[in-house]
Design a protein that fits this description.
15 strands; 6-stranded mixed β-sheet
């Protein structure tokens, strides 16, 4: 059984979007999500759910699947049981016996005239006989009963179905300066041709003459480039995996939104995401500390096992992990840890001395902080290359060797094809920069 903790729910409705059974809803009086919990206040006392008690035909059979002698276990042993949306991988324990497929798949039911129960108005009860008399043609069809009516009053007012209304009015442009910059005429010698994109041809170039002119002819036409972290280059037996350095939970904007206490409460840490297959292979489980090694160092986060990431790939969101050396100086206290940094030659070791904790301030909510860990700053361990390889100890530990970092940088520098290019240019003039220097500075 699954229930919603009303004390923790913030009413964001993400669970409503994610539930494949459309089983959750928002209690408008409380502002929190709710669902059927099989009358947990009864089942905890050994009583059956109310629906099973009042059902006159005893069509609802509750029980414990862990008890092989229970009625439900015996029914399952007999077979012929099905469930809704087993492909969702949720392991549903609400099973149906000898039910038509239209009773499991909403797309196979008839909702052309509205929903049997959800669309009714108060005082307008539609019993089976009246339904047959009103619509004889569909008397033998399955009728949608457990879904909700998503009809839009705005779509009805416009004489449109909800999908057509959404397609027409669901997206709109917000005017901004330069919105039509690519469509504006060139104004060169009276030409009315549009300016186009900022490429030499003004068009979207499938073949880039610039790349060819600058010595990268093999990449002038788009194609697949096998990187240094291609799966064929990795030694899975040695624990090598791809680490995504750009992965981020969408709750916060990097660490720049750390001053938002509500967002920080939702996503205050950044565990390492790992597929169950890899976790089983490495013998690790949710909540354990893992050491992630890169070419120049390592960092130590906790583990989160999920099918939301591909096997052979791990990711640690870079929205968390702020730190400071002095408690009263630095970033937001509710989103940063107090650390100590030790240096030995070219190696730097960062260890957290104290995580976040409640504190007094002008905001009374800072005294209510309940979390302690604020994540790990993994960026320090990334060498100068697109995707480092991942691979313990104390939570939040970070070790970095800057000499190894310089070595990696020099290796990648050797892969470049240095300037000058055509006309002794440092870089193509049409490749703009945030602050564009004068034309003279482009030439060597």
């Amino acid at each position: 059984m699954i229930d919603v903790d009303a004390q923790a729910c913030i009413g964001c409705q993400a669970c409503l979007q994610g539930c494949p059974y459309d089983a959750l809803y928002i209690n408008e009086s409380k502002g929190t999500a709710e669902k059927c919990h099989f009358c947990v206040h009864r089942t905890e006392r050994g009583l059956a759910p109310a629906c099973a008690v009042v059902c006159p035909t005893e069509a609802i059979v509750p029980g414990d699947f862990h008890d092989p002698q229970s009625v439900v276990s015996k029914l399952r042993a007999e077979g012929h049981l099905t469930a809704r949306k087993v492909e969702a991988g949720t392991g549903p324990n609400v099973l149906y016996r000898e039910v038509a497929q239209s009773g499991l798949d909403p797309l196979q039911t008839n909702a052309s005239g509205g929903y049997l129960w959800a669309a009714q108005r108060e005082g307008d009860w539609l019993d089976a006989e009246r339904f047959r008399a009103a619509d004889p043609a569909s008397a033998t069809e399955a009728r949608t009963t457990y879904d909700v009516d998503r009809s839009s009053p705005f779509a009805k007012a416009a004489g449109m179905d909800p999908l057509s209304y959404m397609r027409r009015y669901g997206a709109f442009e917000i005017p901004y300066a330069g919105q039509r910059r690519y469509e504006a005429p060139r104004n060169e010698h009276g030409s009315t041709e549009p300016t186009g994109f900022q490429t030499p041809s003004g068009k979207l170039e499938i073949h880039s003459a610039t790349l060819a002119d600058w010595g990268w002819g093999e990449h002038a036409t788009p194609g697949y480039i096998s990187s240094h972290v291609h799966w064929r280059e990795l030694d899975a037996a040695a624990g090598e995996m791809v680490l995504l350095p750009t992965f981020r939970l969408p709750t916060l904007i990097h660490t720049r939104s750390a001053n938002s206490k509500w967002l920080q409460e939702i996503s205050h840490t950044n565990p390492l995401w790992m597929h169950p297959r890899d976790a089983e292979r490495l013998g690790v489980s949710v909540g354990e500390l893992v050491r992630v090694r890169t070419t120049i160092g390592y960092f130590v986060p906790r583990l989160w096992v999920t099918e939301g990431i591909h096997p052979g790939v791990v990711a640690c969101s870079h929205h968390a992990g702020r730190w400071h050396l002095h408690r009263e100086v630095g970033s937001e206290r509710l989103a940063s840890a107090l650390v100590d940094i030790k240096r030995e030659g070219s190696t730097f070791f960062v260890r957290q001395k104290q995580g976040v904790e409640p504190f007094e301030s002008d905001d009374p909510d800072t005294s209510r902080i309940w979390w302690k860990e604020i994540g790990v700053n993994q960026n320090l361990t990334f060498p100068v290359q697109p995707d480092p390889v991942s691979g313990e100890d104390r939570f939040g530990d970070i070790r970095v060797d800057t000499e190894k970092s310089r070595r990696v940088y020099r290796e990648w520098l050797a892969l470049t094809r240095p300037a000058p290019g055509p006309d002794r240019l440092r870089r193509p003039r049409w490749l703009h920069r945030p602050t564009r220097p004068s034309d003279e500075t482009y030439r060597l």
